[in-house]
Write a structure and sequence with these properties.
By secondary structure, the chain is mainly β. It contains no helices and eleven strands. The strands form three sheets. Strands 3, 4, 6, 7, 8, 9 and 11 form a seven-stranded antiparallel sheet that branches. A two-stranded antiparallel sheet has the order 1-2. The chain has a two-stranded antiparallel ribbon with strand order 5-10.
Length: 382
């Protein structure tokens, strides 16, 4: 448009000219106007600028402290380890929605069949060990507020059992914007997020997305941690590390190792003292009276008159078939429990109950003449 200038006399001056109106001012001439450029006095700062690591300046105008080397860990290998509550009937509030890469889905604790009280928690296996240094929490993005976390605590662990003290605790601002929390780096494979309260005091927890931050320059997140303290080729973690080493302080103890008999050590990590059961009959040397014979063990069936104590009861019961306490070497009739050395004689039955080789039951008075010859076998004088 045209601007007309006048002098003090009211006449048009020579300063009249056409003027161009600039509506998008870009003072630093970096291609981004002041409306979108967070610092329009510095051409190195604009929404498309490259971040300079560690200088404390937000070059790309995203309002976040991403001038560090921290980056979100890929969620592709993540697995749900544990969740205390999830709504699966009234809505799709499955816990896995918290790390599906979709900000429009969410994890929501149960409400259709009653609401469990706070705290609520989710535990996730990240798939590998990372140098975890922070996380981002994205509240639900559907316009609702129910379940938005206020107070929280976060844990990191290598074994999903020994969580120890939390790596960070705090309270989120009451908004739907993504929150970023940084903490001292810790090597871990498992993360546990506990919601201690909700912004409106309700008993629910919701989460659109959880991102865990790692310093990819510090530890390449490609290999799992496999602890092999005794260098025998087997680790204590198991899983992707292979069979579990049941004693990682002894290089002679590992899965499929050679058993050393009768030393009380489970060398092959099968959970059994098979080194004390050489014959494989299910009884170790402590109870098996012959651990070289699989037919000999406590409770085995006795084989009569073979001279072997099959059932390990310490008695030659196989030599005492009638179980009268006398073996066949001294029992003159090992099929009759009433016949054995010292047994009481039953008069005139024709049986030698006491195994003395004499039919003394036919010589009651002991005068050396049996009843057939003794006219009075009750009187030794006759």
């Amino acid at each position: 448009f045209t601007v007309t200038a006048y002098n003090f006399s009211g006449e048009e001056s020579g300063f009249s000219n056409e003027v161009q109106l600039i509506t998008d001012i870009d003072f630093d001439l970096d291609g981004y106007a002041v409306a979108t450029d967070c610092n329009d006095n510095d051409s190195l700062i604009n929404p498309g600028a490259q971040e300079i690591i560690g200088n404390g300046i937000d070059e790309n105008c995203n309002g976040m402290a991403d001038d560090t080397s921290l980056q979100p860990i890929s969620q592709a290998a993540w697995k749900l380890l544990y969740v205390d509550s999830q709504e699966l009937a009234g809505e799709n509030g499955a816990a896995i929605n918290a790390f599906d890469g979709n900000a429009q889905t969410l994890w929501h604790t149960g409400w259709s069949n009653g609401s469990a009280p706070m705290p609520h928690e989710i535990q996730i296996d990240l798939g590998n060990v990372y140098a975890i240094s922070g996380f981002r929490y994205l509240p639900r993005q559907d316009g609702g507020e129910n379940g938005t976390v206020a107070k929280y605590e976060v844990y990191a662990s290598n074994d999903s059992a020994s969580w120890g003290a939390p790596v960070t605790v705090g309270t989120f601002a009451s908004s739907t914007q993504e929150k970023e929390v940084l903490f001292s780096s810790k090597n871990a494979r498992f993360i546990r997020v506990r919601a201690l309260s909700e912004i409106n005091g309700n008993p629910w927890t919701s989460m659109a997305e959880l991102k865990v931050l790692t310093d990819t320059a510090a530890i390449p997140p490609t290999e799992p941690l496999c602890t092999d303290a005794d260098s025998d080729g087997f680790a204590v973690e198991g899983g992707t590390c292979g069979p579990i080493d049941c004693n990682d302080s002894d290089m002679n103890v590992y899965p499929d190792a050679q058993e050393i008999p009768f030393n009380g050590i489970d060398e092959n990590c099968n959970g059994m003292n098979d080194d004390d059961d050489i014959d494989g009959d299910g009884y170790g040397t402590a109870t098996d009276c012959n651990d070289n014979d699989p037919m000999v063990f406590p409770g085995a069936e006795e084989i009569p008159y073979n001279g072997t104590d099959e059932n390990c009861n310490g008695m030659a019961d196989d030599d005492d078939f009638d179980k009268d306490g006398h073996s066949f070497t001294t029992d003159c009739n090992d099929n009759d429990p009433q016949v054995f050395p010292g047994a009481e004689e039953i008069p005139y039955n024709g049986a030698d109950e006491n195994c003395n080789g004499m039919t003394d039951d036919d010589d009651i008075d002991g005068d050396g003449f049996p009843k057939a010859q003794d006219c009075n076998d009750n009187d030794p004088a006759i």
